[in-house]
Structures are given as C-alpha cells and as structure tokens.
C-alpha cells in the first residue's frame, strides 16, 4: 500500500437522508478490508471558520446570506492542507458533504432583489 494515494469519496444530499450513516458504514467497510480510511464532515464546526458557521446555524449569529456562502467555502479551503496530507499518506477520506451541499443550502434561501449589490 506504500506510495498509493488515498481516494476522496464525497456523499452529498439533503438533511436526514442518511449520509452520515452511509459514510460511517463505508469507512468501516474500507477499514475491514485493510484500507486506511477516515471520515470528514462539512461544515467542520471545530475550525475557526466552522465555529462562525455553527453559530449561524444555531441562530446565535445573524449573517448576511452571501457571507454565509463564503464561509462554507472558506471552511473547506482551510482544511485543504490536511486533506492533501491524508490523501498523500494513502488514507481514503469519506466526506459527509462538500461543495454541492453548501451551494444548495445557500441558494435555497429566497434572495430579495434589494439585497443584490447593484
């Protein structure tokens, strides 16, 4: 297995669709077959940016919709060095949500024409 790059597997979907359960099962199956595997979740609420997102999602913070969209993106970017390191070490990462869920979340909210920056 030395020298082999890990795979990046992403499961996207709506809330309560079973993504976390399926990610956990996939990681367990990969590990049982002898492949190093770990699970990641986005947003990652443990990071600096993730804590801002968490406060917003828990309605403890009121942020403008465009700002939240950028925070979701920044949350992924702040973990890119860790993701690359793990993949280079041969660890397969099974990710519960990534880019498409963040885009879907922020685009699902109706946007007032008055909020657009003209």
UniProtKB/TrEMBL annotation:
Record-level GO BP terms: dTDP biosynthetic process; dTTP biosynthetic process; dUDP biosynthetic process
One Gene Ontology cellular component: cytosol
InterPro entries in UniProt: P-loop_NTPase, Thymidylate_kin-like_dom, Thymidylate_kin_CS, Thymidylate_kinase
EC identifiers of the protein: 2.7.4.9
An example Gene Ontology molecular-function term: nucleoside diphosphate kinase activity
Residues covered by the Thymidylate kinase-like domain: 11-109
Stated family: Belongs to the thymidylate kinase family.
Name of the featured protein: dTMP kinase
């Amino acid at each position: 297995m030395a020298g082999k790059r890990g795979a990046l597997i992403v499961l996207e979907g709506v809330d309560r669709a079973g993504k976390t359960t399926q990610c956990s099962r996939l990681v367990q199956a990969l590990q049982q077959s002898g492949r190093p595997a770990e699970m990641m979740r986005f947003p990652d609420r443990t990071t600096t940016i993730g804590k801002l997102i968490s406060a917003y999602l828990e309605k403890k913070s009121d942020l403008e919709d465009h700002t939240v969209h950028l925070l979701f993106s920044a949350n992924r970017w702040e973990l890119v060095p860790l993701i690359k390191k793990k993949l280079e070490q041969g660890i397969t990462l099974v990710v519960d949500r990534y880019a498409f869920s963040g885009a879907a979340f922020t685009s699902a909210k109706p946007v007032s024409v008055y909020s657009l920056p003209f």
